[in-house]
Amino acid sequence: MIMGDANMYQRFFASKSAEGAKFATKVLIGAVAAAELMIIFSAWVASSMIPDAEVGKYVLIYASHKFLPTFLGAIMMTTIVGIIISTADSFLLVPATTLMRDVYLNYINPNADEKKIVLLSRLLVLALGIVAYIVSLGFAKSAGFFERALYAYTIYGAAITPTLVAALFWRGATKAGAVASIITGTVTTLLWKEAAFIKNIIPVNIYNNMDEVLPAITLSIVSLVLVSLATKKD
């Protein structure tokens, strides 16, 4: 899922040279591997202390609140919130930049000066933030702050990651396949979380124990491959 993280690509593109980006990639792989192992170990230890399966997705948050000393718990909670906020910033900046570069500068005002581009980009970030807030109220009415953050990241990861990975490693991927993958990943996540009829189709024990990212990213990959093969030009 991290291959679809906009934060990562923003850091690479900010590098002064290709060599710097390559070095950053190597450091990232090592840092992510170490961080993920520590997270997994912490979650494993914490889950053994928590009998309630309902808090499984938020075990580190729960553990920092219930088990750690106040000072350490506050540091951990601050870190978690900081990660969410920084990710949200990137999730707003990426579509704003895309709209400016791919739509506004290509079709509306190709000769716009830098000051106008910066101003409109900032206004777009604000507008997209408002839209995201309204959407979160509509699709995650009963969810709290952390649940909504996880919900957003699941949609983003399931929709974007397969297409990004295919763009980097599979020459057979097509534009139609990418669009189908993004739509399928998004719709599957929303239906799995929001549509009541899904519970009537999927056995209860499977539905309750399966994270929505699994069916979403699976169907996203399948649609990417099938549509790309169907629309591939010889």
Automatic annotation (TrEMBL):
<protein>
    <recommendedName>
        <fullName>Sodium:solute symporter family protein</fullName>
    </recommendedName>
</protein>
<feature type="transmembrane region" description="Helical">
    <location>
        <begin position="176"/>
        <end position="193"/>
    </location>
</feature>
<dbReference type="GO" id="GO:0006814">
    <property type="term" value="P:sodium ion transport"/>
</dbReference>
<keyword id="KW-0812">Transmembrane</keyword>
<keyword id="KW-0813">Transport</keyword>
<dbReference type="InterPro" id="IPR050277">
    <property type="entry name" value="Sodium:Solute_Symporter"/>
</dbReference>
<feature type="transmembrane region" description="Helical">
    <location>
        <begin position="117"/>
        <end position="138"/>
    </location>
</feature>
<keyword id="KW-0739">Sodium transport</keyword>
<feature type="transmembrane region" description="Helical">
    <location>
        <begin position="70"/>
        <end position="96"/>
    </location>
</feature>
<keyword id="KW-1003">Cell membrane</keyword>
<dbReference type="GO" id="GO:0015293">
    <property type="term" value="F:symporter activity"/>
</dbReference>
<feature type="transmembrane region" description="Helical">
    <location>
        <begin position="27"/>
        <end position="50"/>
    </location>
</feature>
<comment type="similarity">
    <text>Belongs to the sodium:solute symporter (SSF) (TC 2.A.21) family.</text>
</comment>
<feature type="transmembrane region" description="Helical">
    <location>
        <begin position="213"/>
        <end position="231"/>
    </location>
</feature>
<keyword id="KW-0472">Membrane</keyword>
<keyword id="KW-0915">Sodium</keyword>
<keyword id="KW-1133">Transmembrane helix</keyword>
<keyword id="KW-0769">Symport</keyword>
<dbReference type="Pfam" id="PF00474">
    <property type="entry name" value="SSF"/>
</dbReference>
<dbReference type="InterPro" id="IPR001734">
    <property type="entry name" value="Na/solute_symporter"/>
</dbReference>
<keyword id="KW-0406">Ion transport</keyword>
<feature type="transmembrane region" description="Helical">
    <location>
        <begin position="150"/>
        <end position="169"/>
    </location>
</feature>
<dbReference type="InterPro" id="IPR038377">
    <property type="entry name" value="Na/Glc_symporter_sf"/>
</dbReference>
<dbReference type="GO" id="GO:0005886">
    <property type="term" value="C:plasma membrane"/>
</dbReference>
